[in-house]
Amino acid sequence: MARLADYFVLVAFGPHPRGSGEGQGQILQRFPEKDWEDNPFPQGIELFCQPSGWQLCPERNPPTFFVAVLTDINSERHYCACLTFWEPAEPTQEAVCTEDVDEAGPAQLSPATPGPPGQLFAPKTLVLVSRLDHAEVFRNSLGLIYTIHVEGLNVGLENVIGNLLTCVIPLAGGSQLDSVEDGVRTISLGAGDRQVIQTPLADSLPVSRCSVALLFRQLGITNVLSLFCAALTEHKVLFLSRSYQRLSDACRGLLALLFPLRYSFTYVPILPAQLLEVLSTPTPFIIGVNAAFQAETQELLDVIIADLDGGTVTVPECVHVPPLPEPLQSQTHSVLSMVLDPELELADLAFPPPSTNASSLKMQDKELRAVFLRLFAQLLQGYRWCLHMVRIHPEPVIRFHKAAFLGQRGLVEDDFLMKVLEGMAFAGFVSERGVPYRATDLFDELVAHEVARMRADENHPQRVLRHVRELAEQLYKNENPYPAVAMHKVQRPGEASHLRRAPRPFPRLDDGMVQWIVDQATAKMQGAPPAVKAERRTTVPSGPPMTAILERSSGLHGNSARRLEVVRNCISYVFEGKMLEAKKLLPAVLRALKGRAARRCLTQELHLHVQQNRAVLDHQQFDFVVRMMNCCLQDCTSLDEHGIAAALLPLVTAFCRKLSPGVTQFAYSCVQEHVVWSTPQFWEAMFYGDVQTHIRALYLEPAEDRDHVQVGDVSVPEDERSALDVASEQRRLWPTLSREKQQELVQKEESTVFSQAIHYANRMSYLLLPLDSSRSRLLRERAGLGDLESASNSLVTNSMAGSVAESYDTESGFEDAETCDVAGAVVRFINRFVDKVCTESGVTSDHLKGLHVMVPDIVQMHIETLEAVHRESKRLPPIQKPKLLRPRLLPGEECVLDGLRVYLLPDGREEGVGGSGGGPALLPAEGAVFLTTYRVIFTGMPTDPLVGEQVVVRSFPVAALTKEKRISVQTPVDQLLQDGLQLRSCTFQLLKMAFDEEVGSDSAELFRKQLHKLRYPLDIRDTFAFSLGSTHTPGRPPRATKDKGPSLKTLSRNLVKNAKKTIGRQYVTRKKYSPPSWEHRGQPPPEDQEDEISVSEELEPSTLTPSSALKPSDRMTMSSLVERACCRDYQRLGLGTLSSSLSRAKSEPFRISPVNRMYAICRSYPGLLIVPQSVQDNALQRVSRCYRQNRFPVVCWRSGRSKAVLLRSGGLHGKGVVGLFKAQNAPSPGQSQADSSSLEQEKYLQAVVSSMPRFADASGRNTLSGFSSAHVGSHVPSPRARVTTLSNPMAASASRRTAPRGKWSSVRASGRSGGLGVDVGSRLAGRDMLSPPQANGAPPDPGFLQPQRAALYIIGDKAQLKGVRPDPLQQWELVPIEVFEARQVKASFKKLLKACVPGCPAAEPGPASFLRSLEDSEWLIQIHKLLQVSVLVVELLDSGSSVLVSLEDGWDITTQVVSLVQVLSDPFYRTLEGFRLLVEKEWLSFGHRFSHRGAHTLAGQSSGFTPVFLQFLDCVHQVHLQFPMEFEFSPFYLKFLGYHHASRRFRTFLLDSDYERIELGLLYEEKGERRGQQACRSVWEYVDRLSKRTPVFYNYMYAPEDAEVLRPYSNVSNLKVWDFYTEETLAEGPPYDWELAQGPPEPPEEERPDGGAPQSRRRVVWPCYDSRPRAQPDAISRLLEELQRLETELGRPPERWKDTWDRVKAAQRLEARADGRGTPSSLLVSSVPHHRRSLGVYLQEGPVGSTLSLSLDSDQSSGSTASSSRQAARRSTSTLYSQFQTAESENRSYEGTLYKKGAFMKPWKARWFVLDKTKHQLRYYDHRVDTECKGVIDLAEVEAVAPGTPTMGAPKTVDEKAFFDVKTTRRVYNFCAQDVPSAQQWVDQIQSCLSDA
Question: Which secondary-structure segment (H or E) carries 1835?
Fold first, then answer.
């Protein structure tokens, strides 16, 4: 029996001690005065009576009632029922609170309030404190007391309170009592009242009344579920409501849902305002707070807030509440909705049944609880099978094997269950419900017997609902066992009684009288016999064994019986000694062991081969067993949830081999490298499992005579009884045993545990001490045994309270292997373990001390044993390793370090590992890494023997190495931790290698050092490109070879000498001269400066004079400069020639100036520059000072159509800019040099503008009529072809009509300084007609450039041009754009590398993570910006305005933009020859710093690799993709250049400028004619040679459009990732070193086997392994190959592929003409529809209306009348001639071989000459079958043909009369025929041609 109420308290309002406006509660009286012994008076009750604070009130409020819950120090809950009513305040109370009244009082008084107008009311509270939760009874009782007081009933309050305090009621468990009377108690408090109290049947089931149903009503299903999960996973939950009663109900409801788990953290349903700081406690809680304090809860960051009034649950961002595991989450959700909203199922029915009556609220409450009860039964099903009985007597000690439970349920990954099992609530559940012999309740029945039913019902909602209702009935019966007898009779106060004037305040009660009633009752109770509740205890049923919650097929490794059979066979072969058989099966076994069943099977099979705890094997058997064990353990997590490590633990100490007499090596020394062994949780679970086995055995022995034992109601065979059954039996018998017997059993159990602890200390030392204790690799790599004291597994977390004897905080991992004392660490680890398990399992302290003494000795002994084992194991003969495969080397490539054995491990790429990309698992591979003078090469074989004999090659040039880091990784075969290296290269290769054990750390270190030395040589001459093919010692420049002739050598020497002299002086000058600040502008410069400059100019007369005044010695320099690519190109563009006739040159607007030929003005510019004709050379010196690096504006290209020019320069120096764009005055005589430079600069730009043609061009484009922007000629559009650059031609007209913002906003960043007089946009694009930018980022159509544009646009960096105000009268305009810097390119490239070659497998494999990291790199955004700016410049040039690109220093982004513009604008640069010229001109001659950006030498190491050139190639590749028919070269050509610009194989891309190349004697040696067959030093030469042999660089789809200007889309969505970054060929390494590629498409004759047999042989092509273009060449390459093969078979010399191809194309075009249709008939037609020619099709606007024509070849137009309106310049015949030969006969009038004397200083050379009367040309080729014309002599320029004389170097054997000269207006050509007659014939033929003309 228990007291209904413990205390009755009267609390009233009292003044605050500190005199503040608030009051405070005061306890007026409490009964009984003395505390009960078993239940002291709870402190702080007065706070909880008025949770919002004690305040006076201006009106009388109705009484309120709520129940607060207080928890005492013993976790007992006290229910405080509080009834509060208001009484008029006494004067003293009012005085305290006058200030309150002033603020809030009188104004709010309602007229209805009785009492004087200023009267205040004070609260008074009646409190009942009880340990029982009978809220209704408390409400009635307190209500009765209040009613007696208010209504003035004639009943003594003392009697009522005395009766209340002495009332006793039965404890829970009515069913266990004898009669209804005992379970139901009727009480009366002596005021004519009657109440019935029903006690619940089972006290373990919570009482919820309606609280759960209300909670669901207020918050809804999803919210309650998330609160439920939050409470279970120990998050902080806060309820808000304006009602206190609702807060306590909600908290009670949430607790009821958690059953059978008990909430053990802070639980305060109503928190008083004064205690709000409790909310910031770090521990979990469930707390209710009045909604008035919502503002105070705002800053709580980790609290889940449930607002009951608003129906919301707010989970903060930083909190992750794991949901229930599926399918339980969705099942629970649907059952809850069926219970709460039964109408939902019927809502869609056509004929809904008559409405069913919904359950009452109380019943619904029980149904909801039943759903959660079922949920727990499903979650925890089979939990009893994972309990470990550690002790039975004197008290049961039980542990839960969490890992096994998760593993068997298949929920290892599940966050929710993991957290629940680790939580305090579950620990309590185990200790309370794990007990095998106790009273059972509803949950035990459910989890043991109903699981099968629940599983069967899963898909039948109605059956589920029926089950829920059955459970709800039982829960309801538990709370209301006798519904019939519930009759209450309690008086209530009348309506509005609180408003009546109370007769008097609540009286002071008579203490003595109440105390007397209480004392009497206690005396009576003492006399009565104690009521002992007899519990009905039974053995708790275990239920069926566990099953996985969701039958997941284990996917890839679904274990078939066949797999298990393979495992069994392999093991039996091993033990039968059939090693070869075993070896064949091993790979299959290792693969099968990925599956769980196979791993279990392996452990079972191995157990069979162990007799008496020992199995001695021979070396091979031992190796096999160890490999299989390692493979098993490799996939074990640290928890070992499938018990694999547990099963192997006894085996690793059983299998052994004899190393020598007395020395035995056990398997444990070879399987230590697994994380599971260093996990304390694993050892604890193992230990408790073994202890349970031994304790069970302890009690089974004596009972041998009995066969069957009664367990519960069923008899079980003795040996099948589980440990829990045994324990249950023992607990039942325990009370009946004698004292001695009890003592004996306790002692036996204790010593069992103790002996196991010693056993485990040994076991742990076996697995934790490494074989070589000097190398603590194990500890360094593992999680660090030292960190683990914190991560205790045992689910009773009171291990915090001292089970860890001491905290080893100092042990934080073992990074530093040398200093780490292995033995000490292991001893500490074992001691911590021993402390924990022994404390938990009740080992005596003496035994524990003994253990602590023993552990260091055990460890020390084991170390000594291991030393002998280690020594002997070293003597074993090494295992045969596969022999190393030597890589193929290039000619001249030498090995620096011979192969080091390594394993190549998979990096994050899918290729080669078999992943989702398919294909075999080529990686990991076992082989060796070689370091040569040129490359780092790995060659090896896959470790997976089933892949076959594939050779894996991965290599990259040493020069491409960008990052090298040491790593520590597991070797794939033995799972040993080894040191490794990860090398990343900018050619997108990654070598992630683990060194084999045999590679010492010194060898690895040597490899690193050599690699570093080769990667960053001290001098550029030590690189491979220089050392190749020459025997000079590194560091000394190579001697020029003899055949270059003396002139060349002296020339280059003189040139450098002169240049150095000048440069030295120039640099001195420049260092001393700094432009004076603006304040000193008026003063003349200091004397010495003036002198120095003038001296330097006097010394160099040639800088002042025009080119005709060159001195003879300089002429030699000049002619070699002319040979450079630039000049050839300038002449092609008509930008000037170096001719001596000045008169002709004057008419040209531009000229070639040799001012920089000594590299004196600008070191990084070429020797010859194009400048306006009107600017004198001496002015250039001054102009250059305004620009960074002296890179002043020079012309690099001119549009053939609009005659606009493209200029490039470095960025302006700050002062230069300001000077340039100030309003200029006439220069005063005293102006400083800075100003004069600016003036010069302005003149220079004016000269550029003036040199542009001033007439409207043929297409009707209007250029500026005057050069002031005030007088602009009117613009008359003429009918002409316009390129609509819309993706959809139909939208063209629409785009004209709409006029949104201009396109400039996208190029320039948002705002320019507001000071610009005339906005570029408005100048460029008249506001009246402006077509929109395209959706794809393509430019609007060219019509958008209006006539009032500037003549010259200067594209500059926005940051640099800040605050510049252009003068509106000038004809140039600034376009500030935002560009990225080189360092951003570098950073972006790093991220791109990481994205394409991650280095480690992605956390979430799949395309998403790659695309995400690609986006983060911002590489494509930079490509987009470059293309966007370039297209803009193309538009400007095309519209007739010139453009000066002046960004950064003029050698990175400027070069990219300028080159891209030329590729887009000029079809010539889209040919192989043109692209080469472009790169030589813009990148090499104009000084892009290849060595600096590529970090070629030690000096550049810090700057890192910045792939500016690669970025340009990527842009070209993007254009190539969009216009595949416009480029003569293939995408492979771009990749080839991308690879070799970083490889340092060729000298082309070395050094930073022409000046540096001259200094090393590089520039002109390339021009030497007779090279012999030595290795190519120039990449261009290599490309030429290779092109002759194979079409790999040629694009078959090449069919260019006439004078096509390309305008590519530039939006990121239109860009593709270049496959150069992602593709890989493991068969041969990168395919860019052609000699190394293993099967070139055309092997020489002797290699090809007879006949065409190999052609038809089928072979497997693996995308990640084979080179696809090589294995499956495209159709045309295949046909050409076949042709060559057939010709070879016929014994004819095979024709060059290019000749064949040209013939085919010519024939095809003839055929097309014959058809008379525009469509070509054969080869290329299929490619047309797929690749649009340009962004748009041509819309011809002509008299006939619009017709569309899509033309394929340059010679064909559409044939419609409109085509005449398109007059675009055709390509010059000479360029296109070689590609489109029609019929050969008509072009070759006469042909033959002649020797020709080369240009200045070149030798004689035999050439094939063709005299063409039709074209009136004499052409020459390298040889007869060459189709590329090497030169043309135009017969129109020939003045005379005369006999010649032999000159130096002419062929010796030829008659003098065979020489003749052809004199043209440009120069004299010297020829020599083979004999005199043929010479005569040639002269005659040429003469006749001339006379015909």
Answer: none
How many residues can be counted in the chain? Answer: 1893
d(CA 1120, CA 808): 78
Closest CA to 206 of 473, 535, 534, 478: 478
| pLDDT bracket for residue 1745 (50, 70, 90) | very low
Alpha helices in 787-943 (DSSP H): 822-840, 845-874
Q: What residue type is assigned to position 1772 of the chain? A: S
CA Rg value for the chain: 48
Whether residue 209 has pLDDT greater than 80: yes
Q: Which residues lie across from 306 on neighbouring strands?
A: 239, 313
Q: Which long-range contacts (CB under 8 A, 24 or more apart) does 649-653 make?
A: 649/686, 649/763, 650/607, 650/610, 650/613, 651/603, 651/606, 651/607, 651/610, 652/766, 652/767, 653/613, 653/763, 653/766
Name the E strands within 1577-1631. none
Residue 679, phi then psi, degrees to nearest 5: -105, 115
Shortest CA distance to 271 belongs to which of 253, 254, 296? 296
The pLDDT tens digits for 110-133 are 444 445 567 888 999 999 999 988
Nearest to 1167 by CA among 1125, 1222, 1112: 1125
Strand order in the sheet with 663-666: 615-617, 655-660, 663-666
Tell me the sheet residues that pair with 1376: 1356
CA angle (1353 as vertex; 1350, 1355 as ends), nearest 5:
155
What lies within 8 Å, CB to CB, of 1018 at 6+ separation is 1035, 1497, 1498
The separation between the first and the last C-alpha atoms of the chain, rounded to the nearest angstrom, is 137
Contact 1804, 1874 (CB under 8 A): no
Q: Tokens 């004199």 belong to which residue?
A: 1863
Q: Cα dihedral sign for 1493, 1494, 1496, 1500?
A: positive
* Tens-place pLDDT, residues 368-385: 999 999 999 999 988 888
In this prediction, residue 751 carries a pLDDT of 92
Q: Any idea of the CA torsion for 821, 826, 829, 830, to the nearest 10 degrees?
A: -150
Task: Tell me: cis bond preceding 394? Omega within 30 of 0 counts.
Answer: yes
- Tokens read off for 1807: 């050439």
- Residue 1536 near residue 1633 (C-beta atoms within 8 A): no
> Could you give the CA distance from residue 952 to residue 1662 in angstroms, rounded to a whole number?
13
3-class DSSP state for residue 1124? coil
- pLDDT over threshold 60, residue 1218: no
Query: Which pairing describes strands 1817-1821 and 1804-1812: parallel, antiparallel, or unpaired?
Result: antiparallel
CA–CA separation, 377 and 375 (whole Å): 5
Question: Could you tell me whether strands 121-130 and 77-88 are parallel, antiparallel, or unpaired per DSSP bridges?
Answer: antiparallel
Picking from 1057, 907, 904, 890, the residue whose alpha carbon sits closest to that of residue 958 is: 890
Give the closest residue to 933 by CA, choosing from 1037, 1004, 1027, 1031.
1027
- Tell me the C-alpha to C-alpha distance, in Å, between residue 854 and each of 766, 823, 1024: 15, 14, 64
H-assigned helices in 380-480: 402-409, 415-422, 424-433, 442-449, 451-457, 461-479
**Do you find a cis peptide bond into 1368, omega within 30 degrees of 0?**
no
State how far the Cα of 399 lies from the Cα of 421, in Å rounded to an integer: 12
Report the candidate in 1814, 1812, 1794, 1813 with the shortest Cα–Cα distance to residue 1804.
1794
Secondary element (H or E) of residue 305: strand 303-307
- Backbone φ and ψ for 663, nearest 5 degrees, come out as -120, 120
Which whole-number Å values give the CA distances from 324 to 217, 308, 379, 683, 860, in the listed order?
A: 21, 23, 9, 29, 49
Task: Give the bridge partners for 978, in sequence order.
Answer: 969
d(CA 547, CA 559): 17
Following CA atoms 458, 460, 463, 468 in sequence, which dihedral angle do they give, to the nearest 10 degrees? 50
**Whether the Cβ atoms of residue 1490 and residue 1541 lie closer than 8 Å to each other:** yes
